[in-house]
Amino acid sequence: MKLSEQGRKFLLELRETLRDEYREGCRNSQDLEEVWRLRHSDLLQWPIKEEGQTFKALLRSLDLGKYLKANKQARRRLITETGLQLGRVLGDAPATQAESAYPPPVLGDRYQLDTDVKYLKGVGPKMADLLSNIGIHTLEDLIGHLPFRWEDRTQLVTSQTAPEDEFVVIKGLLGKTGVRSPRKGLTIVTCSLHTEDGIVELVWFNQKWILNSLKKGKEVYCYGKFERKYRKGQMNSPEVEDAADEHRLAGRWVPVYPVTGRMSQKWLRSLMFQAVPSLAPRIKEPLPPFVLKNRGFMTRRKALLEYHFPTTPVGLAEARRRLAYEELFLLQVEIGLQRRTRELEPRLTVYETDKMVPERFFSLLPFAPTGAQSRVCKEIVSDLTSGTPMNRLLQGDVGSGKTVVAAFAAWSAIQQGYQAAIMAPTEILAEQHYQKLKELLEPVGIRLGFLSGSVKKKQKLEVKRQLAAQEIDLAVGTHALIQPDVEFNRLTLVVVDEQHKFGVMQRTVLRQKGYKHNPDLLVMTATPIPRTLALTVHGELEVSRLDEMPPGRQPIHSEYVRFSKRKRVYEEIREEINKGRQAYIICPLVEDSEAVEATSATEEHKAIAEKVFPEFSVGLLHGRMKAADKEQVMEEFRKGEHQVLVSTTVIEVGVDVPNATVMLVQDANRFGLSQLHQLRGRVGRGEHASRCIFMADAKGQESRRRLEAIAKLSDGFEVAEEDLQIRGPGDYYGLRQSGFPEFQVADLTRDLFLLEQAQADARALLAEDPDLKEHPVLKESLRLRAERTAELVH
Ligand code: ADP
Ligand code: MG
What we know:
Structural class: alpha/beta
Strand content: 15-25%
Shape: globular
Bound molecules: adenosine-5'-diphosphate, magnesium ion
Number of helices: 27
Number of strands: 22
């Protein structure tokens, strides 16, 4: 956002207020309530609407009610958070006023950025292995391993001024020690700390070894929770640091790093104290000068120093803004480069527009297209007749009619003498697509073939032969379709369903199977993708949305009920079944492993079949079953041989049994909201009214709020936004599996603003310098990023 002159002034004044408040110890000496009221009234008639809204959001981000009730440390955090947001909007680097200094450099010239971490003090071969497991090989990698939070140890107080029950730092001289053993198994070590205005008692339980470090007369800083007992100050189990130690933590914002295995914070910090101050100043700048200047970012060097060892909250906020931007920018440049590569690939297949008329296709079907389907079909035609291959993402809620749109695309290609392939992530889903497409397309004269891991060898060979001989026009299947030994004759169109379960690599492989190696690609997903994610994960795809349901779908009544009501719920399900309907019962999610989940599903099935519904036939479906067995159970359920199907989430995608009208999700609080929404899409597919019951003993407000939200929301996009807010993007989209590098700093739930800047800047850069000839450091950063991504995938 470009700020007006007036807007900039507004923010600078606001920042000044916050800084004063911070400097004066967060005592509300500025009367923030009054300031906020005034500021807010300024905003009521703000001339630029968008700006006014942003500023209001900024004011809101310092929740005053909370601030006034909070203790000092929490107040500092709140101010810092707001400073962080403010810096983001202001987009300049403020003069930071030093509150603590960076630690002094200690490494000699022998150490370079590309030096192996094993040469640092404290790193033996075992620890070097551990570091290498998390992608840290060189000192530069180490510096790039960023903290995810900081402990505020900047608050230096005395025995008189120390606030009660807060973590504080007190400086003093160590006095007399004592050891007591009031009962067996309990040893208490005490030591008096002589501060400038009184004595504080330091106490440790069962840590006798601490005595060795408590040398009388030594000047130290103690960090811990402060209490007052009988008017005497006391700290329990404080950390004691030598005042002469240049690397002491007292007085700093102390970084807390992600660690694994037997790696301790203290140990990793000691490496950072060695490497960061010595080598961060040598790190090269990947961002183009125009970005640094226009966006007012600090250099990467400075940002890294500040992020590891913040000097001020505002400095930290600025460092964060810069580093988050950089992650987003690298991604956007990469997306831009990919897009460019594709645009350079010319379309080799020529399609004729008059053979791809949506109306003609739908006249062959028993129903008319929805408005959304017509629109998207036209978008596809325009892709297919453009100069570059199609690369489109089709989003639509379960049941919105994506498969039919995919069928249109396939029909269009096949009409003109080509082959098409549709690939699904699971056997069940592939099989269902196959059945449905066969029903739709075989009457139209299209020859279909099915290929999956469970197809018998002989049959497989035959299908492969037919594909190569073009005796099959449309191949439907799973991963089996992209095995090296599968050949097509004239494959020009590839549809990938539920794309997020496929990796980027697999997409590339599929692409290479194409006729003249350049097929048109349509990706379908029922997972609604919030805008931020669409810009990142799918940045290189065009997006279509099917935002209209085919007529005649029954609304699904959703509700959240407590576990204690399960008897009533079972009764209601029984009534429904007695009316001739069928029911799904979804087992609790078990995260440990598929095997454990299968066991628990089997037990659940037994309980339901024997105790709850002994009079009905109850089927079981879980991920550990053989594909053929799964298919058989599904078929039996479809035919109505089972009234109840107990299942894990393998049922999630694409299963279609119109007569199933009830779904009970047990322990619903364990599932993500989007997952619940997907599950729920299994019912409401026929002529009868349907219900979905989310059952849980939702402990805590958060869980309850989530379940109430999903029960109320019926639109997939709304669910997705809610889910993203609650869970964060990594979990939400299974990004880890798709080989998508996780951000260390950027937060897609909050950084839409930065993301848009990064996208605009990346485009501007590539327009000027499409091969990055003038930006070697940036190019190198992209290469490293790709390497790291590859490391994560394999
Ligand atoms: P999705 O793949 O998005 O879940 P499908 O393409 O499987 O949706 O369609 C769901 C159901 O709706 C199918 O039974 C399909 O035949 C039917 N359907 C699709 N489009 C229409 C339409 N325009 N009018 C009526 N029924 C439709
Ligand atoms: Mg479908």
